[in-house]
Write a structure and sequence with these properties.
The complex is a heterodimer of chains A (about 375) and B (about 400). Chain A is mostly helical and about 375 residues long. Chain A is built from 15 helices and four strands. Chain B has two domains: about 200 residues, Response regulator (Rossmann fold, 3-Layer(aba) Sandwich); about 160 residues, 3-Layer(aba) Sandwich (Rossmann fold). Classes of the chains: A mainly alpha (about 375), B alpha/beta (about 400).
């Protein structure tokens, strides 16, 4: 390894320990720290409207959910078309507490971090359960199994009166050390909370991938028989991949419930599952930074197309309803184009930019 | 001489500038409202003409100085595509813009935002007539009779018109959601209060393209009346199948056949366009005045549509009228608040709305609110599809819905 830890060039690993560093150079660490300071610091300097704060909060929640999906699909190679249902499990765990003990019960309003973790655990339990078919099924068949879970989830929520048949179940306002978090601070408060979750869980994923459990995921993805021959347990690995994905999704669901102060069925439909899949693909499967790029890109696209179709909708008659088709059309087009021309996702563009700067001022 | 000309020129320039900058002060005030609804996406067949109705009315208000003193209404109309999360985002955007009244749309979104409405104390005029929106809610002002009122009213109408001594056998054909189930629950409560109908079967439809088995089953169970509470497409499919099977009643309550009835979103010109002659005889409860009535009210609606170049489909849609009514309620609230000499604030508009009373050309009856009554138009028109249009049979007010509400 180079003596100068600030330089990106000329760094060679001479031990496994060096390879397991979170940051390979001091420069990486410094840039990351600055970025983190920026993320935490900008709301103190710039005032932003609730509308945009809500969009940012939503993107961060999607990042938490996509972290789980990327672990499952990108690192373990197990497809899931029911990820929104796992997110829903987390949200409905909060809603269940709300139904049983009341939405303004101190457990929900004061011990919300515990509730969020409980929701994650519930997501993990359901994830592990749904992951059981993965012991026998692969590829398309596994996709159908997870799709079935999505359908069962939707049916249960829509027909069980305990879940208000899919209509909103309210969640009370949370308390902080300074008292109840009011309407004016709500979105900013949750921005910080979700950001903390993103950072902690992001480091969790980074570290997991350096452990034998993380390497097992990749080994099973590449060839589960070979992994078995190497002494790994592919069955257990697949189940805990689903459990992990369920945990992340459950946490995302609970954060969604608290952010919106209520849980309604329509945020966890098959359409949302496809959205998470798109985020994972566009971001870059099996990459860490793709987890962040995907949700940002898809949510941004979503808002742009939404505004465009709204503009078109105002001027077209409603009979052919062309404007309605614009959103799914553009959404599908983006996925197809990425799969065709950039299957490694936006993360690959990031990699190219990094490689370029690494060698700069020499030609790439 | 030169300096004198320059001086005059400068003075004139200052006057022009002063005039230009003070002009907006004489141009009247602009009151901000916000509207979020499905212009595209699910239910946009209703949302799109609804938005056009509201848009045209606000244009008319601004162009004709309806509010007086050059005051205008600025109401951005946003397309939430029937998504609660998007509606929430737009609502926050509108709050940032300090709107006075929120014109909302879907049942789900309204229920999700119910607490926010109470918190920010903003008057809301929804396009959803779900009874739950006015339960434990102070700021939601329902424009017309609720879905529950439609369903219970239709059941009462069946009881009133049914021939024979037996209890009418009724099936409910509903949307598989709380939107569909709510009015059914209230009808069941009305039965508990003494309404004499027998609900033989409740069908929660899916996306079936064939209802043969269901219709044959209903006939075999002796069902005579099918009350629908859903949207137009599944009703159109069912009516077409009933016509094909020959089980549609030729006259109201014909024995051994099915008489179909439905609430607000099941009927209208769009249903006729979808089901054609199969719609004949369909009974529809709605609180809007239809253009097919060809009365003075209808003429005004068509004039407004023509003024802004709307096509026939939009102009004749009862959803276009619904959009006009929602916009009219907001406009009249501002106008009345102004007439009372009060400052135009959310609080004062809310106070005014509690006693708002006016006639609308879009509605079947007058809009009347009171501190205890949050439904504008209580009266329903019972229409029947005849010769390709809906014709009014009678006006109707549900009696049992009051008992159901009292029992809450």
């Amino acid at each position: 390894m180079s003596q100068n830890r600030w330089l990106a060039t000329g760094n060679f690993f001479t031990s496994y320990k060096q390879e397991q560093r979170t940051f390979f150079t001091h420069l990486d660490r410094t840039i990351f720290t600055c970025f983190l300071v920026l993320l935490f610091g900008w709301p103190l300097v710039f005032e932003i409207s609730n509308k945009y704060m809500l969009v940012l909060d939503n993107i961060l929640i999607a990042i938490v959910a996509v972290m789980g999906l990327n672990l499952l699909l990108g690192f373990a190679g197990l497809i899931s078309i029911g990820h929104a249902a796992f997110v829903g499990i987390g949200a409905y765990t909060v809603a269940s507490f709300s139904q049983v003990i009341g939405d303004n019960h101190v457990f929900i309003t004061h011990f919300w971090p515990v509730v969020i973790v409980c929701a994650g655990i519930m997501g993990a339990i359901f994830g592990a359960f749904v992951g059981l078919p993965a012991l026998r099924l692969k590829h398309l068949y596994l996709a159908i199994a997870t799709l079935s879970f999505q359908m069962i989830f939707e049916w249960f929520i829509q027909f069980m009166s305990f879940f208000n048949q899919g209509q909103t179940i309210y969640v009370g306002r949370v308390h902080w050390f300074t008292g109840m978090v009011g309407r004016s601070d709500h979105y900013l408060f949750w921005y910080y909370i979700i950001l903390i979750f993103v950072v902690v869980l992001g480091f969790g994923v980074r570290n997991l991938l350096k452990t034998k459990y993380g390497r097992c995921l990749v080994a099973v993805r590449d060839n589960d028989r070979a992994a078995d021959a190497m002494g790994m347990n592919p069955g257990l690995t697949k189940v805990y991949a689903f459990a992990l994905a369920g945990f992340f999704a459950g946490v995302a669901g609970a954060l969604h419930a608290y952010l919106y102060r209520g849980v309604g069925f329509e945020s966890f439909t098959l359409h949302a599952s496809v959205g998470y899949l798109a985020m994972a693909i566009v971001g870059g499967l099996g990459t860490l930074n793709g987890i962040f790029w995907g949700p940002v890109a898809i949510k941004f696209l979503d808002i742009q197309v939404e505004q465009f179709s709204e503009f078109v909708g105002h001027y077209l008659t409603y009979a052919p309803n062309v404007a309605t088709a614009l959103k799914p059309l553009s959404f599908g087009l983006v996925i197809v184009l990425f799969l065709m021309y950039e299957p490694r996702g936006i993360a690959n563009w990031w990699r190219i930019v990094k490689s370029y700067t690494k060698l700069w001022p020499f030609r790439y | 001489m030169k300096s004198k000309t320059a001086l005059i020129f400068n003075v004139l320039l200052v006057i022009v500038f002063l005039f230009a900058f003070t002009l907006p002060a004489f141009a009247g005030k602009t009151y901000k409202l916000g509207m979020s609804l499905a212009i595209t996406g699910p239910t946009s067949d209703a949302g799109n003409p609804y938005s056009k109705g509201a848009e045209d009315w606000f244009k008319f208000v601004n162009e004709t100085d309806y509010l007086g003193d050059g005051d205008k209404i600025d109401c951005p109309i946003r397309d939430d595509q029937y998504k609660n999360d998007t509606t929430k985002r737009f609502f926050e955007e509108f709050l940032d813009d300090e709107i006075l009244i929120f014109l909302s749309y879907a049942t789900g979104a309204n229920l999700a935002l119910k607490r926010d409405f109470e918190e920010v104390k903003i008057p809301v005029i929804p396009a959803s007539y779900h009874e739950g929106l006015i339960v434990d809610a102070n700021y939601t002002f329902m424009p017309v009779a609720t879905y529950s009122e439609n369903a219970v009213g239709l059941a009462e109408y069946v009881v009133g018109k049914h021939q024979g001594e037996d209890t009418p056998k009724v099936a409910f054909f509903i949307h598989p959601s709380a939107f569909g189930r709510g009015p059914l629950e209230d009808t069941q409560k009305a039965i508990a209060e003494g309404l004499k109908i027998d609900i033989v079967e409740v069908v929660e439809h899916g996306t079936d393209l064939d209802n043969t088995a269901m219709l044959q089953r209903l006939v075999s169970k002796g069902v005579q009346y099918v009350i629908c509470h859903t949207v137009q497409t599944p009703v159109a499919t069912m009516l077409t199948d009933a016509q094909r099977l020959g089980v549609s009643a030729g006259s109201f309550g014909e024995k051994g056949k099915l008489t179909f009835l439905g609430a607000h979103y099941t009927g209208g010109s769009d249903l006729i366009a979808l089901a054609g002659t199969a719609t004949e005889g369909y009974i529809w409860a709605d609180s809007y005045n239809l253009t097919s009535e060809n009365n003075e009210k209808a003429k005004k609606q068509l004039e407004l549509a023509e003024r802004y170049g709307r096509d026939d489909k939009a102009a004749n849609s009862h959803n276009y009228g619904a959009g006009i009514l929602a916009a009219q309620i907001a406009t009249e609230a501002i106008k009345e608040t102004k007439a009372a000499g009060l400052k135009i604030t959310r609080g004062n508009i809310y106070k005014t709305m509690q006693t708002l009373n006016f006639e609308s050309f879009a509605a079947a009856g007058p809009v009347t609110y009171s501190p205890t009554e949050r439904i504008g138009v209580d009266v329903m028109n019972i229409y029947v599809a005849q010769d390709g249009v809906f014709k009014k049979l009678q006006s109707f007010e549900s009696q049992y819905i009051q008992k159901v509400r009292a029992g809450r």
